[in-house]
Amino acid sequence: MRYYDKLVFELSQKGRSAFSLPQAKHEFTPGGVWRESELNLPELSEPDVVRHYTNLSQMNFGVDTGFYPLGSCTMKYNPKVNEQVVPQFDGLHPLQPECTVQGAREVLSFMDKALAEITGMKHFTFLPCAGAHGELTGLMLIKEYHMSRGDTARTKVIVPDSAHGTNPASAAVCGFDIVVVKSRPDGLVDVEDLKPLLGPDIAGIMMTNPNTLGLFERDIKEIARLVHECGGLLYYDGANMNPLLGVVRPGDMGFDVMHLNLHKTFSTPHGGGGPGSGPVGVGEKLVPLLEKPRVSGFHGNFGVIVRACAYILMLGKENVKMAGLLATLAANYIKESLKDCYKLPIPTVCKHEFVFDGLLADNGVTTLDVAKRLLDYGFHAPTIYFPLLFHQALMIEPTETESLQTLDAFIEVMKKIAREAAEDPELLHTAPHNTPIGRPDETTAARPPILRY
Ligand SMILES: *Cc1c(COP(=O)(O)O)cnc(C)c1O
């Protein structure tokens, strides 16, 4: 263990401090409120404090430290100009008089218009604080829509088997029963499997397009027609709308309500639990059900909205479109470059991401081994063992913000790992070899975590 890997409490030396102040006089403090014993705080010099936090930051992996191809998460680079813009707004209080927050209102009004134009929805609410929160909000709108028409028998929501786990979870939290529609072998929703599920008890369907396998649901128009015909609504999970920016609009595909993850598609940083922003957009039918007034205080994680606004303004209309095209190009480039080493179950053109099903050669090296070995080479692992349609899923999403050189470096390392797997499988079973932590027992760490020193 390196010296500075110690905890601050272990580095502490009695009496050491990072500052000196004149001895305080406590004349004005009422009696009887003083602590009887000293606070147990670590005592360190300024260099010790700086080294402690800087070393901690180095034990983690971030978009600012390396390539982060985590599928379904859109870990794109967060431009530093975003961070220069946000402090202009961070003194605001949600209860401030409206006349003093006109700039913030303008941001929300601009974002409402920009996102409506990008998605083909009519209006957005910015209250939801993440994707799943947006899903719940959207489903509540769907429920309210049916209720407001006296249509009370619609208790079921259809979710494809390839859906992100939050979709069925949100539908369940909203009180719906979940009906699963199957995917065909080509990875798209099976329209023939969908037809018999439709009826007067269906509130709607939740879809991701491109879906979790990175494939565009080519039958979406037909699906929209069928679901609308039975009286249901279409919910669009736009967490990863990245590849469609400026190319196709959910509103034009027939969706009635949707959410976007500003913290994925529009560059703002995420991971480690937040903060996020999952604005919900609605088409004509649902506009009357949005909260009123639509521009008021308490607008979710406002800093995230400001970052997304800076990102959209920086790119402008033309380049917002380029973001989607480049993300698609990058994903297909990696897919085609590696399909001789890794099993590619669905070989068609993908959008922003795609899924390998482990190594092509079967010699006991698992997807987990590959993911762990990647860390040794300084790359974050792709998403693994998701989606559940494949046993050794390795889901890669490069985003548009990586250079050709970075993509090539990643491809080179993935090929090298495939060679290592053939020559020295044990090297992979025991990876990673040069990270601060090797293979933690993830179940135990998540179930009874030890959060105190
Ligand atoms: C990330 C993601 C979500 C959930 O978003 P959170 O902000 O983590 O709640 C939902 N659907 C898809 C497809 C996603 O990729």
What class would the helix/strand composition place it in? alpha/beta
Q: Report the biggest beta sheet as strand number plus sense, adding barrel if it closes.
A: 7 strands, mixed
**Shape verdict:** globular
* Rg, Cα atoms, Å: 25 Å
What is the CATH C-level name of one domain? Alpha Beta
The CATH architecture of one domain can be named as: 3-Layer(aba) Sandwich
What is the strand arrangement across the widest sheet?
Answer: 1-7-6-5-4-2-3
Q: What is bound: which ligands?
A: pyridoxal-5'-phosphate
Let me know the number of strands.
Answer: 10
First CA to last CA: what distance? 17 Å
Average pLDDT level: 93
Amount of beta strand: 5-15%
The share of residues in helices is 25-40%
Describe this structure in words.
With 453 residues, the chain is of the alpha/beta class. The protein has a domain at 80-315: Aspartate Aminotransferase, domain 2, CATH 3.40.640. It has 15 helices and ten strands. The chain has helices at 8-11, 46-58, 80-85, 102-119, 131-148, 166-173, 191-194, 220-229, 250-253, 262-265, 302-338, 367-376, 404-423, 425-429, 442-446, and strands at 123-125, 156-160, 177-181, 202-207, 233-238, 257-260, 280-282, 354-357, 383-384, 393-396. The chain has a seven-stranded mixed beta sheet with strand order 1-7-6-5-4-2-3, sandwiched between helices. Strand 9 and strand 10 form a beta hairpin. The mean pLDDT is 93. The structure holds pyridoxal-5'-phosphate (PLP). The site of pyridoxal-5'-phosphate (PLP) has 13 residues, from helix 5.
